[in-house]
Amino acid sequence: MRIGLLGKKIGMTRVYDDKGRAQAVTVIDVNGNAKLQVKTKETDGYNAVQVGYDTQKKQRVTKAQLGHFEKAGAEAKKIVREFRLKEGETPAEDFKLDVNLFKPGQMIDVIGTSKGKGFAGIMKKHNTRGQPQSHGSMMHRRPGAIGCRSTPGRIWKNQSMPGHMGHEQITVQNLRVVQVREKEQVLVIEGAVPGPNGGYLIVRPAIKRPVGTLAKPRHGVASVATTGAKIAIKKK
Amino acid sequence: MNIIQTIEQEQLKPQTSKFKVGDTVRVHTRVVEGDKERIQIYTGIVMGFRGRGLNEAFTVRRISYGEGVERVFPIHSPRIAKVEIERSGSVRRAKLNYLRGRKGKGATTVREEAQQLAK
């Protein structure tokens, strides 16, 4: 079963691992995930678990939604997402959606919405080189030629053009869980995650790793991080 | 306290060595070779501090085989065992970037605290 959690990016910091190496980490809040509904093939046509996250004022949701939340015994939630299950998979009755779904060392995927960059030119958006900044050049960041002449007589598809950039869904695969903090209901994961601080995220077990496996040790060293502890030396 | 501060607080060393810009220091670094750990000492002049809290770091400059070398150490890194003061210097700047342009004796010494007091 690959059930994940909804969360919010809190920010980034640095954590020293058991070898004393600093690693950049992102802190993700996953407090208050609620199981809203378990969908099954018989009743809904597919298997899934519906999850809600982040408290919302009652008057901000429709009465239909409120009824749905109450049925699940949950408070009103801001965002609702589903995690699809394979056929025949059903979560246990007492299945809990909290930080303990993940273990330190596990690989996860994080889905978020990237920061919006507005209407961006071709150099920023498509990493083209542009034109000379000097030597009499009066054309600096423009796209230049976008096609040929009478053959083919049209512009090829996928020609890179200026336009809106960012604010799109991005999935980052295979990030390692560094710490699972039960008290604060917070995940600390290695590396960066799309979106601004406070942006909503979906955290799920990595789809390209077998369920329940831990990450390969980084540089051949057991890589479960400690918190500011002494360097542990492995004796042969 | 927010969670990021908590995470950083946990990793702060309870006690850090006290030294300041201009001091000549011996930085004891833990070096892991195979399955053994040993202490390596890096000696030089503290050029400046940067960052705050967990991210605070200092730069140490020395002349090694005629070549200037600068190393940046995070103060709270577990790989820094301790920092000893060899000579305490007295300088009027927060960053001693002017040492970079110097040659000979001027590159390896700054005015000592005692000299300053004597005047």
Brief synopsis:
The complex is a heterodimer of chains A (236) and B (119). Chain A has two domains: 1-31 and 98-123 and 161-236, Elongation Factor Tu (Ef-tu), domain 3 (Beta Barrel), CATH 2.40.30; 33-96, Double Stranded RNA Binding Domain.
Describe the protein.
The complex is a heterodimer of chains A (236) and B (119). With 236 residues, chain A is mainly β. Helix content of chain A is 8%, strand content 33%. Chain A has 3 helices and 11 strands, in the order E-E-E-H-E-H-E-E-E-H-E-E-E-E. In chain A, the strands form 3 sheets. Chain A has a 6-stranded antiparallel barrel. In chain A, strand 9 (169-181) and strand 10 form a beta hairpin. The two termini of chain A are 37 Å apart. By secondary structure, chain B is an alpha+beta fold. Chain B has helices at 3-11, 105-108, 113-118; strands at residues 24-33, 36-50, 57-64, 67-74, 80-87. Chain B has a 5-stranded antiparallel sheet, with no helix packed on it. In chain B, a hairpin with a 2-residue loop joins strand 3 and strand 4 (67-74). Chains A and B meet through strand 1 and strand 2 of A and helix 1 of B.
Quote the average pLDDT of chain A: 87
Helix content of chain A: under 10%
Shape of chain B: globular
What is the CATH class of the largest domain in chain A? Answer: Mainly Beta
Biggest interface goes to: A-B, 25 and 22 residues
Largest sheet of chain A: 6 strands, antiparallel, barrel
| Strand content bin of chain A | 25-35%
Overall SS class of chain B: alpha+beta
pLDDT below 50 for ≥5 consecutive residues: which ranges of chain B? none
Number of domains of chain B: 1
